[in-house]
Amino acid sequence: MLRLLKPPKRLIQCRLPPPTRRLFTISSRSSNSNLQISQQHNDVESFLRYAEDVGLSPEKTVYVGTLFEYTVLRTLSRMGMNLVRVGGRDDRGLDICGTWSPPTSPSLPRPKLQVYVQCKAERARTGPKYLRELEGTLGISSTPDTPPIGILAATRPCTPGLRKHMLLSRMPLAYCCIAPYDQGGYVRQFLWNGEVGKLIGRGVGATTRYIREDGNRDGEEIRMEAVLTVDGQIVDFVDDGQKMIPG
After folding, report:
1. Residues in contact with 237: Cβ distance below 8 Å, sequence separation at least 6, in sequence order
2. Higher local confidence (pLDDT), 203 or 105
3. Taking CA atoms, which of 77, 108, 121, 160 is between 20 and 30 Å from 66?
4. DSSP string spanning the chain?
5. What is the pTM of this model?
6. Which is it for the CA torsion 125, 2, 187, 134, positive or negative?
7. Which residue(s) pair with 40 in the sheet?
8. 127 or 132, which is more confident
């Protein structure tokens, strides 16, 4: 169930997992689909260099889509996810795979959940058909004990139709609206259904906070960013441990 949390009063810091470059394989009832990692680039910076070297126009669909996929990867990694960009034949529409250790109270262990991410850098609003595609992938690759979480990442906010479909689904689905690379690549919206809530724990939620842009001299709050919370407290992911810090 989606709900709006009260403004947090304290800040939790969580350890980020080390990066990985593994090759993920999705098992199917009839065949196996190997998701290949690109050998030419592996993050935003290396892709931009590659695009310049080969003369790939920023107007090309492959440029826009690939840059957004790496932007999503980098942004979600800041929320405790350990991800790699994948692709290839029979990739079932997946763009990113990995694991997520969602935040918990300091006294509790953090679970490690499988996540599949589908990215849509489209100007038009994303429709429920993409969630249905993601549901199909989850249905093929999931197991009763450890169902993966399917995340649909897009540049546009979640529509009422998408929200309704996600809430009624029996699959663990989430929707993440992420700004494009040239607009900062931050999380604008993060929603999930009750099935995801069962996996990550009831105390985990999402809220928004105001962020000042770099170089903004007047100090006004000009951007709203979605952040994770635990028991109403904002979670900040860092590399040097997990501890409570007064907000």
Report:
1. 13, 14, 15, 16, 78, 79, 80, 103
2. 203
3. 160
4. ---PPPPP-EEEEEEPPPP--PPPEEE-SS-EEE-BPPSS-SSHHHHHHHHHHHT--TTSHHHHHHHHHHHHHHHHHTTTEEEEE-B-TT-TT--EEEEE-----TTSPPP-EEEEEEEE--SSPPPHHHHHHHHHHHHHH--SSSPPEEEEEESSPPPHHHHHHHHH-SS-EEEEEE--GGGT--EEEEEE-HHHHHHH-TTEEEEEEEEPPTT-TT----EEEEEEEETTEEEEEESS--EEEE-
5. 0.79
6. negative
7. none
8. 132
Please give the Cα distance from 114 to 48 (Å, whole number). 28
| pLDDT(13) > 90 | no
Structure tokens given for 178: 């992420």
pLDDT per position as a tens digit, 64-93: 999 999 999 999 999 989 999 986 555 567
Average pLDDT on 42-66 reads 93
Whole-angstrom CA distances from 180 to 106, 177, 206, 224 are 33, 10, 20, 15
Q: Are 214 and 223 in contact (CB under 8 A)?
A: no
Strand ordering across the sheet containing 96-100: 81-85, 96-100, 113-120, 149-154, 173-178, 187-192
In angstroms, the Cα distances linking 89 to 36, 46, 95, 181, 197 are 9, 23, 12, 27, 32
Contacts of 80 (CB under 8 A, 6+ apart): 14, 16, 17, 100, 101, 102, 103, 110, 228, 237
